[in-house]
Amino acid sequence: MARTEFSRATKRAALERSGHRCEAEGTRYGFEPGQRCNCHLSLGVQFDHNVPDQLGGDNSLSNCMAICIQCHKYKTRNDVRQIRKSDRQRDRNSGVIRPAGKLKGAPFPKSAKPERDPNKGLPPLPPRKLYEERP
Ligand SMILES: [Zn+2]
């Protein structure tokens, strides 16, 4: 799978912006909301798409995160899940997947109901006698 990459200039700028500290932040990387990883990037830096390119992210500097290897691993796992989910949603919307929980139709073709009213088409019955005449 071809994955678009950041240019060297973008990576350099992102590393510069990070102050050589991991820019990963918040629950997407397994931290508390607002908490930043901040570990030093001298042990290895990864440049991560803040919004994955499969989900419409571009290669601009604002979408480029300089993060440590641990954070990158965490995020990649989550991104894969999110990408699969968005694939499923797209397939559902396009009809590739049928929504679960509903049968397509009745197991038998619908036909006209059998006639239920036995008097239909017959002359009305004579009024019922209130008593019987003895023979
Ligand atoms: Zn980190």
From TrEMBL:
InterPro entries the UniProt entry points to: HNH, HNH_nuc
Sample GO molecular function, one term: zinc ion binding
Disulfide bond found in the keyword field: no
Source species taxonomy: Bacteria, Pseudomonadati, Pseudomonadota, Alphaproteobacteria, Hyphomicrobiales
Biased amino acid composition, Basic and acidic residues: 80-93
Domain HNH, residue spans: 35-77
Region (Disordered): 80-135
Listed name of the protein: HNH endonuclease
Taxonomic source organism: Shinella granuli
Cited CDD domains: HNHc (cd00085)
KW Nuclease (keyword) present: yes
UniProt keyword list: Endonuclease, Hydrolase, Nuclease
Short name of any one Pfam family annotated for the protein: HNH
